[in-house]
Design brief:
Blueprint (H helix, E strand, L loop, with lengths): L1 H7 L3 H6 L3 H13 L12 H12 L5 H19 L3 H8 L4 H29 L4 H14 L25 H4 L1 H19 L6 H14 L6 E2 L5 E7 L4 H4 L5 H12 L7 E3 L13 H13 L3 E9 L1 H7 L4 E9 L2 E6 L13 H4 L25 E3 L2 E7 L6 H8 L4 E6 L9 H16 L3 E5 L5 E3 L5 E4 L6 E7 L2 E2 L3 H5 L2 H16 L3 H10 L1
Parallel strand pairs: 2-3, 3-4, 8-9, 9-10
Antiparallel strand pairs: 1-14, 2-13, 4-5, 5-6, 6-7, 7-8, 10-11, 11-12
Helix pairs in contact: 3-4, 3-5, 4-10, 5-7, 6-7, 7-8, 8-10, 8-20
Length: 519
């Protein structure tokens, strides 16, 4: 690899003689190693090395070749980086092992097209410079939040959660962090090509990350902290929805909560109640009475059947929801972002043979999408902005919910991915959302990682994974708004668009000629 990398940095004449197989293999490998920069490995420097190698392999390549190189990188990125899906597909989806791997490979091929199109556009329309490579990378990370309903995973900026560069998050969000990471990666290649002037902007970006850390957008309220208890039931996923285990599940959560009544807030995780609220009225009433008598607020994840809405629509309206009850507590939140193959199965009749075990899972029966204008929970005079599981992967959704909140709360069930990197990568996203919005994040999960995360995105306390646990904390409410919370992703997207427009306007004419000659 070292010999090849040296050749990449040599003259264009040498470039033309290199067989395409070499950049394809390097791109595939560099994409495959990217996830080592994220949890649970945290080798942040790979988030620099991996895109740097991609940038180097694209040097003097045609747009057609760049498409193949980018696709190889994207396939390696997603096949390895999202292989934690294997556990949910094979173990809990009861799908054949070979078919499970094939499904992940198909997913990687589809998601790899993002990078393929990205690199094709880069080499087709823009000059070779970090100032075009970084902004086009940002646009394609942003696209992953809405194309194909979105799969916003494996962003470069997450490698720097709790590391210097994440100080840009309260200003301009995760895409700004990714922009800096990719610019530094491409600048490294330029420096190795003896264009040492790229050391200056690189140093300024790192220095800027240190400088902006002194900007304080938010401050704690002059109120006593909120005492919170998080309940982690550790219910096995293969038992969770079995009819004969439903009462046992409720007993586990009720028993774990017994010593916590009297605190300000108790939170149960996503779908910790495995029954619709309409089927369990007596239990909910008893829990509300217990909470009222001990002056405690109670928030729980629960599948919610909106009976009135169902009458209007003429068919059942089911929601993956959170509800609040008890002392000085009210609110209902319906999940806005649903997971394909996780909360509903597209073309379920056609695909029933692919995931047979999931067809009998009530959580897969077809949830509806919650409205985008839902209000935060009101808990003891505080506003808690909610997010359910996968929703915290969407920066702007979390930002929008966080407006006018004192805390952020998320519930999740990552038991689908037990023993994989998925839950820990998920936790990194929660940390980044806390930093972007300047609020403490309360995170209750079924199997882990249950945690309290402060307004700087640092984990203050967390429960052990894969065991029953109660996590207690006293959390300060915060006020004020970060720049990102006010302006959303627009500043970094507009800045990136301007760089690309300038790059397109002043691109070398010989680049256009070279492409025309290849047609």
């Amino acid at each position: 690899m070292r010999a090849y990398f040296n050749k990449l940095l040599n003259s264009s004449e040498q470039q033309k003689t290199l067989p395409l197989i070499y950049p394809l293999l390097i791109a595939l490998t560099s994409g495959a190693i990217f996830s080592l920069a994220l949890a649970p490995f945290y080798w942040w420097w790979i988030a620099i090395l991996s895109p740097a190698l991609l940038y180097a392999t694209l040097h003097k390549r045609s747009a057609k070749q760049a498409f193949g190189i980018g696709w190889a990188y994207g396939f390696g990125l997603w096949f390895v980086g999202a292989f934690w899906l294997y556990t949910s597909i094979h173990v809990y989806g009861d799908t054949n092992a070979y078919l499970s791997v094939l499904m992940i490979a198909i997913m990687a091929l589809v998601m790899g097209l993002f990078t393929a199109i990205q690199t094709w556009l880069y080499r087709r329309f823009f000059p070779e410079t970090p100032l075009t490579f970084a902004p086009i990378w940002v646009f394609f990370e942003w696209a992953k939040t809405w194309v194909f309903t979105g799969f916003p995973w494996l962003f470069a900026g997450y490698a720097f959660t709790e590391r210097l560069l994440d100080n840009y998050a309260p200003l301009f969000g995760i895409y700004a962090v990714s922009f800096v990471v990719i610019l530094l990666a491409a600048a490294l290649v330029e420096v190795l090509r003896k264009r040492v002037f790229w050391l200056i902007p690189s140093a300024l970006l790192v220095l800027g990350a240190w400088a902006v850390s002194f900007i304080q957008f938010v401050e704690p309220k002059a109120e006593k902290p909120l005492s919170v208890s998080l309940i982690q039931g550790n219910i096995p996923q293969d038992l969770k929805w079995l009819t004969e285990y439903q009462v046992k599940t409720l007993e586990i959560y009720a028993n774990l909560s017994r010593s916590e009544w009297g605190r300000d807030l108790i939170v149960w995780p996503e779908s910790s109640i495995p029954l619709f609220q309409s089927d369990i009225k007596m239990f909910l009433s008893a829990m509300d009475d217990q909470a009222q008598s001990t002056h405690t607020a109670w928030v729980t994840g629960i599948p919610y059947w909106d009976l009135e809405e169902s009458k209007v629509q003429g068919y059942p309206m089911y929601y993956n929801a959170m509800m609040a009850s008890g002392s000085d507590a009210f609110g209902l939140y319906k999940k806005q972002r649903l997971v394909p193959f996780g909360e509903y199965i597209p073309l379920s009749g056609f695909l029933s043979w692919v995931l047979p075990a999931l067809q009998n899972d009530p959580s897969m029966s077809g949830f509806s999408q919650g409205a985008s204008d839902q209000k935060p929970f009101n808990i003891k005079g505080h506003h808690l902005a909610a997010a359910i599981c996968y929703e915290v992967a969407y920066p702007n959704l979390t930002r929008r919910n966080a407006v006018d909140s004192d805390f952020l709360v998320t519930v999740s069930n990552d038991a689908w991915f037990k023993g994989t990197a998925g839950p820990l990568q998920h936790l990194q996203m929660v940390q980044m959302r806390a930093k972007e919005n300047g609020r403490w994040f309360i995170r209750a999960t079924n199997t882990g990682v249950t945690a309290f995360i402060n307004e700087q995105g640092h984990i203050v306390k967390q429960a052990p994974t894969d065991q029953k646990a109660v996590l207690r904390g006293d959390l300060p409410a915060f006020e004020g708004r970060t720049l990102y919370n006010r302006l959303s992703d627009w500043p970094i997207l507009i800045f990136s668009a301007l760089l690309l427009l300038i790059g397109f306007r002043f691109r070398p004419r010989k680049v256009d000629v070279s492409f025309k000659s290849r047609r």
